[in-house]
Every structure is written in structure tokens, then in C-alpha cells.
Amino acid sequence: MSPPLIVVLNGPNLNMLGVREPEKYGTATLDDVEALCAETAEEYGLAIDFRQTNAEGELVTWIQECRGRAAGIVINPAGYTTTSIAVMDALLAVDLPVIEVHITNIHRREEFRHNSYVSKAATGVICGLGVGGYALAIRAMADLVEQDEE
Ligand code: DHK
């Protein structure tokens, strides 16, 4: 049997990790984050499909495609966190466990970053723990997927 698939989705500007405001987001690149996710997934017997887009519609399409294909979604919606009802609706539509990740603690930052539409569709949220939050999300997803299989 093939391992359960976790789709890891990254929103706008995360392709610039490593060079983008390193004092906030750190120096790891998105390739480093992908490697961390792949390593963690392998440890827990999961497969991953890791993607990034700057386009809201593409993110919505990728979420929709998870239905019937993936066992769970890990998502850093980045700038779409606080604006996108479409991303929230897509996550609700696919009816899968969802873990929302933010590299920074959005609650310690500007007020406009505090309200997450995505949290209304998320099973859990990890923020403020740097890119290590992605590894924690995959670890948590391993438990959620196991519960779903029982
Ligand atoms: C990343 C972004 O690009 C911002 O728009 C969010 C998030 C925070 C992060 O911490 O990963 O506000």
C-alpha cells in the first residue's frame, strides 16, 4: 500500500524565504523547508507533495484537487491568511485534516495579521516557531491520519 499523502502548500512570497526579511523569517530557503518536510514525512511513513504559488486561484485549485487524493493538508497561506474567503471555503470543501503554519508569531505582529480566515477551516494552527513549525505540523498530521484510519 502506498503511504498516505500530505500536501504541503505555500502561499505568496514564500518562494523568497532566505532572502526575505531574514530577521523575521530566518535564513532557510523554501528548498530547505521542502527537504525538512520530506525528511519528517519519511520518518512518519508519509509521502508529501510540496508546492508554492503566488496566485490565489492556483492555491484554491490545488486545495480542491486534494479531495480524494490526499490524507491531509499543511498550509502556510502567507498573505492570503487574512484576506482569502476563497482559500477558507476550499479547505472546508475538501473535508480533510488541515494544519495552518506560520513561520512568525502573527499575533505578536501588526494587528492586520491577526485575523485568519484559514484558522476557521483548520484542525490546528502552529505559529511563531520558525520553519521548524512545518516539521511539527507533519508530525501532528501523522497522528491525525492514523486516527482517521482507525
Ligand atoms: C508569512 C507571510 O508571508 C505573511 O503574510 C504572514 C507568514 C505571516 C508567516 O509567518 O509564515 O502574515
TrEMBL record:
Domain of life: Bacteria
MF (Gene Ontology): 3-dehydroquinate dehydratase activity
PROSITE patterns associated with the record: DEHYDROQUINASE_II
Pfam families cross-referenced by the UniProt entry: DHquinase_II (PF01220)
Enzyme Commission identifier(s): 4.2.1.10
Family: Belongs to the type-II 3-dehydroquinase family.
Protein name: 3-dehydroquinate dehydratase
